[in-house]
Fold this protein.
Amino acid sequence: MAVSSHTAPSTGPRNRILRWIEYRLPFWGMVEDHFLGYPTPRNLNYWWNFGSLAGVILVIMIVSGVVLAMHYTPNADLAFDSVERIMRDVNYGWLIRYIHMNGASMFFLIVYIHLFRGLYYGSYKYPRELLWMLGVVILILMIATAFMGYVLPWGQMSYWAATVITNLFSAIPVFGQDIVTLLWGGFTVGNPTLNRFFSLHYLLPFVIVAVVLLHLVALHQHGSNNPLGIDKRGPQDTIPFHPYFTIKDLFGLTVFLLVFAVFVFYDPNAAVSPDNYIPANPLVTPNHIVPEWYLLPYYAILRSVPNKLLGVIMAFGSLLLLFIVPWLDTSRVRSATFRPIYKWVFWLLPIDVLALGYVGANPPAGLVVTIGQIATIYYFVHFLILLPLLGKIERPRPLPISIAEAVLGSGAGVGAAGEGQ
Amino acid sequence: MRKHAFTLAATLALVAGFTVGARAQEEAPTPPHQEWSFDGVFGTYDRAALQRGFQVYKEVCSTCHSVKHLYYRDLEELGYTEDQVKGIAAQAQVTDGPNDQGEMFQRPGRPSDPIVRPFPNDQAARAANNGALPPDLSLIVKAREDGPNYVYAILTGFKDPPQGFKMTEGTYYDEYFAGHQIKMPPPLNDGQITFADKAPNKTADEAHDVVTFLAWAAEPTLDQRHRMGVKVILFLVIATGVFYAGKRKIWSRIHH
């Protein structure tokens, strides 16, 4: 067996040391199979850029977060001032903090676009159900991480958001109050709460990294879906990831960084309530307690239901529902392009979610309440009634025979594949 | 490119929608917009206004309000020399210690000291102010919606109460304060402060200068941020152009 370490494989590095390593740890083989030569559908559009963007922003968040943690003090009496010290006295501390703060918003923006892209092109359908479910796990972990991160500066909104959100668990029958006490580490939001939130806020991003790796393993098992939603039939349907998608992703990355930079440098507090620059004060409740924008739709659902327990169930349910979307959607056609009714119905969902966001941001009075209730009902109707029903009644348009045929026109064959190399 | 434009527009619409939506509806009128030297992409703090604003803070506000996140050394950013800052710091008496007798003692301030607070603690501040706690001003401009215009409006918004408006004992009518009854007496008057640079000193001028100072106190790195932003964005625009050209060139090898 050992002999084959000397009989060099035909591909891979030439250098003897690298070959020795390669035989034991197939690094270059992995890079070749899963990055450079990775066969990618040739027809991906720009909506497919958001997956790699999410990966980049995750790294940005972890790097900036690790540096912030070097200067931050997780103590109820010192946390607020330590953040101000970062802003004023740490070299480029203001830059690192603004990157981290706005990075959270950017991360959610990217992931929400990524999620809606999956919904439009049916990326959750056979055989990518687990890939989709791992994505939902990532989203839930992100929400928990972001919420705990928002608490750390220990401003007014930090404190009161922590109070409101942790109190949701008190709606759970029998164990509710015990769970809340456990979350708080005491009988009110206080120093123990801040300490455990800091610990978990540092831990969860690495759990996210682990689930992202699983997400990638599941992705590479069957490869990316594509705008046509049809399977790859052969080499003429794909092109190697490098250089085609490395350059396309780099272009997308710089466009994204431009948007990111505009916020970091010219409106860094756009997404933050001014109240969070007031130190936490348990004796003064802010006029409106509002979560960060990316949580507003769930908050709107919560408030739209008159019963607290039911509201909590529906707010969490709106997320958990995503797990079963692959089975709620009864259509076997993936891409909305070929689904004449779903193609239009799809757009009602982002509109509905934006309406919920608007409702979540505004005091619940008058028309806002009505819009909130209608939008909440529609959200569940969309997934629980329309998705199963449309698959039954809709007559999809005929699918192209192959990606290559759709892209290159009929008669595309071996010649086209050669062109792609 | 059309899809890009759509994404970008969606981003901006989303963010704009939420920030506008999140603006709290107060009963007080919206503060009118003022011109600020630090507004806009190329905005920087007007140094002369900063120094005048610091003078207003020192002569008026500092009687009751602290700026606890600021150190004397930070004042060099207002354009004062190191020696001037040493002089300003030395005017204050700082409690230090304990010394080797185990006792606290007073000494003149140094640039490395935090700017001395008017009261040793919140209770002392309340006791001296009829039960009201004068807030720390280091972050006041960032801690209020539309901060600079709001603080300016409060400082210039004192009026006689409208007929029939019941005032609580020890409060003053301010047009822009929620509920209109503020416990701070009108702090600024026309001609109250004589500026070293002979700048105009109507109430509005004094308010404008002190708000500029407080905006700096809340966000002292704004100048640096604005300067760096221009460079970063220029770099990214060029990089975007290069990668877009590269993408076009590489993809032209295949029919797609």
Remarks:
- Chain B touches chain A through 49 residues (CB under 8 Å).
- The beta strands of chain B are 93-96, 105-108, 172-173, 181-182.
